[in-house]
Amino acid sequence: MQTGIVGLPQVGKTTLFRILTRAHMDEKSARSATHIGVARVPEPRIDQLAALYKPRKVTYATVEYVDVGGIVRDRARDSAVLAPLREVDALAHVLRVFDDPAVPHPAGSIDPLRDAQSLDLELMLSDLEQIERRLERVEKDLKKKKDAATEHEHALLMRCRTAIEGEHPLRELEFSAEERKILTGFMFLSLRPMLYVLNLGEDEVDKLDTAIERHGMEKLRGRPQRDVVEV
Q: Are 177 and 148 in contact (CB under 8 A)?
């Protein structure tokens, strides 16, 4: 499984990447655009079975994490920036909640809900550009020749476009197995399940159980294929 770690600059993405993958990077490596690392998924039952049966080799499940550079509005439309994310199975959006005057927030203030919605919108706009380009091609093909498969694709893309124009990411829509097969080739970013990771300050360590509500993130927690966690 591959998970892409995304977020604005200076929110703690690379710190989370280091914690998950135990990667050791010098300052130059830490500033590079993309980092890729693998984390072993702990599973006590495998250890118990290994101790019991003593196999020659024990293979644990792993997760590959892809940490891309901070995404801001002018970079979100850059296909080279988003390219590594099109291969992942899910996205983890690190949201800054901690306040540090020494590290100004790119938007000028701390507002995790705003940042979550802003990046989601950028991902949707990227998908919309793809949809519109493909629709133009499909509509030309339909003018030349009516075809059931092409008509089905056209209807599916129109449905996706309507959802995004209404600011609903594709992950919130229900698709049949056949429709998902069609959409796979497009690698739409807003179709990926999203986990919002709140990067809290040290003063909130003893308030983890109420962090989501205090920062207004409960609005996103109940949406399809989304969840919120605190670190």
A: no
Selection from 19, 20, 24, 59 nearest residue 39 by Cα: 20
The residues, ordered by sequence, that sit 6+ positions from 109 with a Cβ below 8 Å of its Cβ are none
The tens digit of pLDDT for each residue in 81-107 reads 788 899 999 999 999 999 888 888 888
Q: Is the pLDDT of residue 10 over 80?
A: yes
Average pLDDT along the chain: 87
- Residues 41, 137: Cα–Cα separation, whole Å: 43
Sketch the domain layout of the chain as residue ranges. Answer: 2-230
Query: How would you classify the pairing of strands 62-68 and 34-40?
Result: antiparallel
DSSP state letter for 10: T
Return the amino acid letter for 138: V
Edge-first strand order for the sheet with 194-199 is 34-40, 62-68, 2-6, 90-96, 194-199, 226-230
The model's pLDDT over 176-210, given as tens digits with 9 standing for 90+, comes to 999 999 999 999 999 999 999 999 988 887 777 88
> Domain 2-230, what architecture?
Orthogonal Bundle (1.10)
Do 40 and 62 form a contact (C-beta atoms < 8 A)? yes
